[in-house]
Structure formats: structure tokens, C-alpha cells
Description:
Layout: E1 3-6, H1 13-24, E2 27-30, H2 31-41, H3 44-54, H4 61-72, E3 81-84, H5 90-103, E4 109-114, H6 117-130, H7 140-154, H8 157-163, E5 167-171, H9 176-190
The structure holds adenosine monophosphate (AMP).
Residues 9, 31-32, 35, 52-53, 56-59, 64, 85-86, 88, 92, 137, 146 line the site of adenosine monophosphate (AMP).
Amino acid sequence: MNIILFGPPGAGKGTQAEILVRERGLVQLSTGDMLRSAIAAGSELGMQAKAIMDAGELVSDDIMIGMIAERMEGADCAGGVILDGFPRTVAQAQALDAMFADKGISLDSVIEIAVDETALFARIEKRAAETGGARSDDNAEVLKARLKVYHENTAPVLPYYKDKGQLVSIDGMQTVEEVSSQIASCLDSVA
Ligand code: AMP
């Protein structure tokens, strides 16, 4: 089973992806984590990406599509993946469709975790406190920029999947357990 977890920064995609990894043995593909690993490794891509991420902007579609295409070649992905943070533009969604068609694999569900945006500032502050400020983009100023980018570039991905009948929306303002149980019911219904 291959699914997309969709939602603005702080919606809880990473938390829910971790639960799905544990409970369903799917592989989590977080493009944000991949970029943070590139930064930690000090690669040229990492250097370029850091400035973009710190400004709350998006890394180019070409780079991101290439990164996911390469990762999807991994043998571990054959059992199913959770895309967390990808696609973030319609161009990425189209490239993903082409990639899946090429590989003969299906996209089983796109799950939107819908949240009240005013709550995101508190959530990001909480994450920054819990991780000791590990992410330099976890602060109110960068979050504002990330939300603007989300509305302009990422939200248009929702109608793209809605029109294809692949979108399911879940109320992300519930507890982690409630969100997780609704995701589970949704996945059981497409399994
Ligand atoms: P995340 O960990 O998903 O919140 O991503 C952190 C940052 O990495 C984003 O604010 C972007 O700068 C960059 N990023 C992650 N995924 C993508 C993507 N699919 N397309 C473009 N930029 C991305």
C-alpha cells in the first residue's frame, strides 16, 4: 500500500507516519528528513537546501522529484511507502503519478490532515521546545513563510487528488490516537 500524508507544517504528518511504520510496516519517505540528512552530511545539495529551508521556501521540483525517484528504487520500498512532505506542488504530484505508472504501482490513498492554522504556531513552538530547537525552521517567523508557501504552492495539490477521487480528509485537531484511528479505518477501507 502506498499513501500520501498531506497537510501544512505541524499538522502531524510525521507523527502519524511513525505510527503507520510501526503498525503496518510501511516505509516512511519524508523529503524534509532527507534534506536534513543532506545538510547534516554537509553535501552540496544540503548547503543549497539549508538556505531555502531556513527561509521557509521550497526546494526545486527537479531536485525533489529526483530525490524521491532515487529513494523509490530502494528494495525496502516495494512493500509500500508513506510519502510525508511530498508532493508539495502540482508538478511534483504529476511527476509522482508518472513515476508510479511507470513502475506499475498504485497510489492507494491521499490523506489530508486538516488543522486549524492558529493552532500550528503553538504546535511548532512545542516541537521546537521538545527537540531543543533541532530544526532551524521551527519558529513563528519561518512558519508564517511556510504557511504562505503552503497556500500558494501546496494547497493546489488537494483539488488535483480530489478530482481523481483519491482524497480523504481527516480532522487533525483531534488527539493523536483519534487521528490515527481514523487513518486506520480509511486505509482498511481501501485495502
Ligand atoms: P518538512 O520537514 O516536510 O516540514 O520540510 C522542511 C522543509 O524542507 C520545507 O519547508 C521545504 O523547504 C523543504 N522540503 C521538504 N519537502 C519538500 C518538497 N517536497 N518540495 C520542496 N521542498 C521541500
